């Protein structure tokens, strides 16, 4: 058990963009003046881009509509947030799944109450990657063998994901030398040759690419498309005493996630001008329990936790589970629907995210089936994410434009 005076031997790992955007400062939106008619939720928060759906939801009035006011305490890392929760400081905390798992296995009764963010699908769109400078001889993941790779922390989510992705790709993860350093120092360390490669999120990912750097691997997408990253947690005893408040927070936060995913320009407007073109995370109210279990097993395999967490307690049944389907419309009339890189043919009934990347101005993605009729625009390129309940029966997808390509799948 963590106490105020005794920190755990193993530093809790921050998953997602630890300090990545804290150097530029975010989030004045959620710290609005108190109102007599609103109930305050004290939120331990990270000053990072992945958390901006909360700020946008406050700005849109989603929380006020539930009778809630958000009072944020900005902490530097997931480690600090879990320790604060251990000492009953704050009602809700925004952390990564890995620190949540570590905390739970160390006896801290934290429970996930809302999902949040995930990685994307490839090197082309992912927001935290392994990068090298342009002149580097490292061209493939195999070339990392014997080289020094910078991570923000050892035995943290970065090392877990990098090791797992390397091993999955046939590269011995033990052959790489891992060095811990803060994200903000990685760009200079890579440029001056102090390290051979870095694993870093936005905005540093885009900065290094702007320097002429190259992405060697996107570990998250190697492990799975839309790999789960962040969540909101609360102590079990707080939930028991404040079940109504928790449900209201969930309602507003889930609304914020769905809105943010469909309105990326409004998220970017909350960013400092110099960082508005960074790659954004994928946000969803659904938890992918299949991939979350894989993450937990990797966390144990690489020595960060000694036992798997009790998932019934960590991720209770009121959290809706679901997978993310990847729909793509290409400029050459290419239309497809995939689950973790494989063409969708048969799925179980349930909730799904359908993340659409529509790159065409002549075609669109149109999904029809039992109770579902959703489409993007034919005339413009766009991204869209729909959270849908797919029922038993046949579904078809096609374009309302020039393409004659179409596909079908069944829900059983």
List keywords for this structure.
single chain; 3 domains; 27% strand; 5-stranded mixed β-sheet; Immunoglobulin-like; alpha/beta; 22 strands; D-Maltodextrin-Binding Protein, domain 2; 13 helices; globular; 412 residues
What does this structure look like?
The longest helix has 20 residues, at 243-262. The protein has three domains: 39-119 and 227-314, Periplasmic binding protein-like II (D-Maltodextrin-Binding Protein, domain 2, 3-Layer(aba) Sandwich); 128-223, Periplasmic binding protein-like II (D-Maltodextrin-Binding Protein, domain 2, 3-Layer(aba) Sandwich), CATH 3.40.190.10; 323-411, Immunoglobulin-like (Sandwich), CATH 2.60.40.420. The protein has helices spanning 52-60, 62-65, 78-86, 97-105, 157-168, 183-191, 204-210, 219-223, 236-241, 243-262, 264-268, 289-301, 311-314; strands spanning 39-45, 68-74, 92-96, 110-115, 117-118, 128-132, 148-151, 177-180, 197-201, 214-217, 230-235, 282-283, 323-329, 335-339, 342-343, 346-347, 350-358, 366-369, 372-375, 382-390, 393-398, 406-411. The protein is 27% helix and 27% strand. The chain has 412 residues and is of the alpha/beta class.
Write a brief structural summary.
The chain has helices spanning 52-60, 62-65, 78-86, 97-105, 157-168, 183-191, 204-210, 219-223, 236-241, 243-262, 264-268, 289-301, 311-314, and strands at residues 39-45, 68-74, 92-96, 110-115, 117-118, 128-132, 148-151, 177-180, 197-201, 214-217, 230-235, 282-283, 323-329, 335-339, 342-343, 346-347, 350-358, 366-369, 372-375, 382-390, 393-398, 406-411. It has 412 residues and is of the alpha/beta class. The chain folds into three domains: 39-119 and 227-314, 3-Layer(aba) Sandwich (D-Maltodextrin-Binding Protein, domain 2), CATH 3.40.190.10; 128-223, Periplasmic binding protein-like II (D-Maltodextrin-Binding Protein, domain 2, 3-Layer(aba) Sandwich); 323-411, Cupredoxins -  blue copper proteins (Immunoglobulin-like).
